[in-house]
Specification:
This protein has helices at residues 17-26, 56-72, 87-102, 118-131, 166-181, 192-196, 207-213, 220-226, 240-250, 287-290, 320-334, 353-360, 373-380, 410-424, 428-439, 453-460, 524-543; strands at residues 40-41, 44-47, 79-83, 107-110, 138-142, 152-157, 201-204, 230-233, 254-256, 298-302, 309-313, 316-317, 343-347, 365-368, 384-389, 393-396, 443-450, 471-472, 475-476, 479-483, 490-497, 501-507, 513-520. It has 544 residues and is α/β, with parallel strands linked by helices. Strands 1-2-6-5-3-4-7 form a seven-stranded mixed β-sheet, sandwiched between helices. A five-stranded mixed β-sheet has the order 9-8-10-11-12. A five-stranded antiparallel β-sheet has the order 17-23-22-21-20. Strand 15 and strand 16 form a beta hairpin.
Length: 544
């Protein structure tokens, strides 16, 4: 815990937005510096102008590379583009539109260039492609997700509507880096004035159809009828006006508790490491909702692009794994029109209690590496009914078993909990307590450890033989995995399983940290032993 965790920043400590914007245009990436390369992590390229890892040249190169990839893949429909409330998102939007229009790509943006959440772009792509299979659409979302104010992010969503897999991102990154090395000479770009008058630039109200179509996924009338008192904190993000429209259109007893849009995110308390971060799972950043927990029945938070959710109940911040277990259980029993043979997706960092719930519901578990990109195609093809990451991201099919969004959807993930409470008559905490009475009580933890870019690379070299220990917290190790069992994709680290406990370790795709997830089905004390053994096993493995 940092010395300022949970405290709001003084004015002089906030990000200098003018300087950030200036550096975006002025900094030039160094072609010989690996830290300045285009790198697609779990969900797009992220960086900051402060170290020349997110600049105008990066966005020019990536956008031009996306144009080339579209042509190779015969993607001839429109490209939908959205952005969140980070300061650099606005800069990057202008650059991307100038390149797209210069390349005569039919590009659709929200009216008045307004903020557009990630799930809304996903919905536009899915809706278009379900009705225009011969002229597929794709999209770009400009967001670094919950990252600090000084960061920028740029994410590509191919025709399945979710984050791009390496099949797309590897050639895009390679082409973008080649363009950067050649001084962006291959980039076609208009001026902003020319772009505004381009016949390729189209405006659309994306908010109204998304909000209207929510009724095809959520039983909103049940929520309204229950009188459930709901609080929402958009955390200064793109979801603000959407929540207003949802509350009005469906007559929900819903209050938005923070209406400020501020690219410094000055209203956010410092996170565990003294950074401002819009994390929906952190007890520090979620303080504004936690302070109001006794005034509401159910509280929802989103990150700036609204692909993640955080849930607060009268007992406080609800652990993401507990909440996801609950909504998986509820959905699997309430969605009678879902395809019977479709699986439920979860990442390697998610609780194994999910496995018990999924299998009890008669469905298969589809376990993948971290990253929602592994679920998007399955959701679009109806091979999956639900997909979730432990980092508070989920989406699922509509009431009739059709794809709705194939990216993480903070609206769907939050509202389904409200439906669950309204229909069951239970609080979210009581619903989960009933599950533990049947399936047992898991104890779960996660730690983030500071590392270096070189330290992160060490995880990619790990094999099953890198783990020399035979025991984990007093139990024989049954398996060591470097590939996910669902799709056999490399997990970028390791997962170690024993009878009643496990841990997995992997580097962050966007920050110089690595994460260890660990769980015990025995006791909190045993969980602490799992944590200690996991740290020792990981440290030994990456140093060997």
């Amino acid at each position: 815990m940092g010395r300022r965790s949970g405290i709001r920043a003084d004015h002089f400590e906030l990000a200098n937005i003018q300087r950030l914007s200036a550096l975006y245009y002025e900094m030039l990436p160094d072609a010989d510096n690996p830290l300045n390369e285009v790198v697609f992590g779990t969900s797009g390229h992220r960086g900051t102008p402060l170290n020349a890892s997110f600049t105008q040249k990066h966005i020019e190169a990536i956008t031009q590379a996306i144009v080339q990839q579209r042509r190779k893949c015969h993607i001839t429909g429109p490209l939908f583009i959205g952005l969140d409330t980070h300061a650099l998102s606005e800069c990057a939007l202008h650059t991307a539109l100038e390149v797209l229009c210069a390349n005569e790509v039919e590009t659709v943006v929200q009216n008045d260039f307004a903020y557009t959440p990630t799930p809304v772009i996903s919905r536009e792509i899915v809706r278009w492609n379900l009705s225009h299979p011969d002229r597929p659409a794709d999209g770009i979302i400009i967001t670094p997700s919950h990252n600090p104010p000084q960061d920028g992010g740029f994410k590509y969503n191919p025709p399945h509507g979710g984050p791009a897999s390496p099949e797309y991102t590897a050639p895009i990154a390679a082409a973008a880096n080649e363009i950067l090395k050649n001084g962006c000479k291959a980039v076609h770009r208009l001026t902003w004035q020319q772009t505004q008058g381009s016949p390729c630039l189209h405006f659309k109200d994306m908010r109204t159809p998304y909000v209207t179509e929510l009724a095809s996924v959520i039983n909103l009338q049940d929520i309204a009828g229950s009188g459930l008192k709901i609080a929402v904190n958009p955390q200064g993000g793109a979801s603000l006006l959407y929540w207003d429209q949802i509350a009005e259109q469906y007559q929900l007893n819903l209050e938005v508790i923070n209406r400020r849009i501020d690219p410094t995110f000055s209203f956010m308390p410092y996170d565990y490491d003294d950074n401002i971060r819009m994390d929906c799972m952190s007890p520090y950043t979620m303080q504004p909702l936690i302070e109001l927990k006794d005034k509401f029945d159910f509280c929802i938070a989103n990150d700036p692009d609204a692909d993640r959710h955080g849930i607060v109940t009268r007992q406080g911040l609800l652990n993401s794994n507990k909440y996801l277990c609950s909504i998986i259980h509820y959905l699997c029993r309430s969605r009678q029109n879902w395809p019977a043979d479709a699986a439920v997706g979860k990442t390697i960092g998610a609780s194994i209690m999910m496995d018990k719930i999924i299998e009890d519901a008669g469905r298969k578990v589809f376990e993948t590496p971290i990253g929602f990109k592994w679920f998007s195609g399955g959701l679009f093809r109806r091979e999956l009914v639900f997909g979730c990451e432990e980092s508070a991201g989920a989406s699922y099919l509509d009431l009739n078993g059709r794809p709705f969004t194939t990216d993480k959807d903070g609206f769907l993930a939050g509202l389904i909990g409200a439906e669950m409470c309204a229909v069951s008559g239970l609080s979210a905490d009581d619903y989960y307590a009933r599950l533990t009475g049947r399936f047992g009580t898991p104890y779960y933890g996660r730690i983030d450890a500071i590392t270096t870019p070189e330290g992160k690379q060490a995880f990619a070299k790990l094999t099953e033989k890198s783990v020399t220990s035979t025991m984990l917290a007093g139990q024989p190790i049954k398996a060591v995995m470097t590939r996910a069992p669902g799709n056999q994709a490399p997990i970028g680290g390791i997962k170690v399983l024993a009878e009643n406990c496990w841990f997995s370790a992997r580097p962050s795709g966007t920050e110089n940290i690595y994460k260890i997830y660990f769980e015990s089905f025995i006791s909190p004390e045993h969980l602490q032993q799992v944590r200690e053994d996991a740290v020792n096993i990981v440290n030994h493995a990456i140093k060997s």
